[in-house]
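Worked example 2:
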Amino acid sequence: MSNCILNRTIVVSLCLLSGLFLNAQDNYEIQVYPYETVKPGMTMVELHNNFTISGSKKIQDGMLPTQHAWHETIEITQGLTPWAEVGFYIFTAASTQYGYQWVGDHIRPRVRVPEEWKWPVGVSLSTEFGYQRAAFSPDTWDLRDSPDH
């Protein structure tokens, strides 16, 4: 087996196996990022909405209940280079019991392997960090690294 085929096989295998260990779902995490990044100088604005059908029903460890709560995230992403972008998130929550509330903010820089490298698969890496109020998360400060492919 040539080195090129062996290298490609290793890269593809690692990317596929990484999906077994990643979890991309919580009250506010509703997107898996594609390989492509926002074009340089362009700004993308998205509104993500989700509803918790079955969640906690009372205050637990100082956190507000999630049962029948709407979670909205405003995502603003700016393209920096052909292979880099930065995203900013504003998290909110709304319920009939507690009203509409600001939850927190995150920032997410992301880079990807440039096309001219001619990798057999698209690979990107993002690091997301930010703050969320203690009424919504046991960890007020958060840092996440995630490979995207």
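The helical segments are 3-18. The longest helix spans residues 3-18.
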